[in-house]
Amino acid sequence: MIDDTPLDRAHAAMEADPGAESARLAFYDCLAGAELFLLLEAEAEGDRITPELFELESGPVVLAFDREDRLAAFLGRPTPYAALSGRRLAAMLAGEGLGLGLNLDVAPSAMLLPAEAVDWLAGTLGQGADAIEARIDRLSPPQGLPEAVLTALDRKLSAADGLARAAYLAGVDYAGGGAGHLLAFIDALPGAEAALTEAVAEALSFSGIEAGSIDVAFLPATGPVAATLARVGLRFDLPQPVPVLPAVPGSDPERPPRLR
Fold first, then answer.
1. Range 136-237: architecture per CATH
2. What's the CA gap between 152 and 62, in Å, rounded?
3. Most buried pick, 6, 51, 88, 254, via CB within 10 A?
4. What is the rounded distance in angstroms from the CA atom of residue 31 to the CA atom of residue 161?
């Protein structure tokens, strides 16, 4: 049975080629999206948590693990913990002078991130987007974007389960001047705009290439712009939730239909 995790594999790729910036960025991207189990000093009080601190020569650190059993194996006893994403943990630790001990002693991805690395991750993830209004003059097939950017976009959007029906990447010229690339989400769920915009920003940040920027738009499936994008754009299919169909009466032998 394969027992490693995505974080183990990203760490192994980084260790195999220490000079590869792309591998290092891919590891931090994986860390940001991973669910981590943070060791606490005491049980959480509502939405307030107090991480347990460990004093090392390099400074205080908190400990987190990417599986519950790894946390248990490290301590050998039950302990309070909080489950949160690497993204949220980095934001919580930013500016506090705290390092992060990851999977220490229990996994091949064991490593110690100094406070400076935690702050860098939080700052990279915290880069926001500016809202602008512009009228599209022409859409065309995307050109000139590095393969690493396309791969990073595909990886991010494949994890955006059900947040939109699809996305199209195209070249864009704006009325009044200006050109670039546009990633348009089709039939996005109400309220999902911020998460999708954040996913695009992170894909660019962790691609390892100075790719400039990509504009993001949200469009309904009906309409001339969406139709043009379907003709000239590069399509990304986002995973869709599988509908749960009601069971056919009598199909479960343990629950036969009842007669009236």
1. 2-Layer Sandwich (3.30)
2. 29
3. 51
4. 19
User: pLDDT tens-digit profile of 38-81?
Assistant: 999 888 877 788 899 999 888 899 999 999 999 999 988 888 99
Q: Where are the domains of the chain?
A: 6-125, 136-237
Residue 47's pLDDT is what? 76
Residue range 62-71, pLDDT digits in tens = 999 999 999 9
Please write down the HEC assignment for all residues of 73-138.
HHHCCCCCEEEEEHHHHHHHHCCCCCEEEECCCCCCCCEEECHHHHHHHHHHHCCCCCCCCCCEEE
Average pLDDT, the chain: 86
3-state secondary structure of 145: coil
Angle between helix axes 21-33 and 147-157 (nearest 10 degrees) is: 10
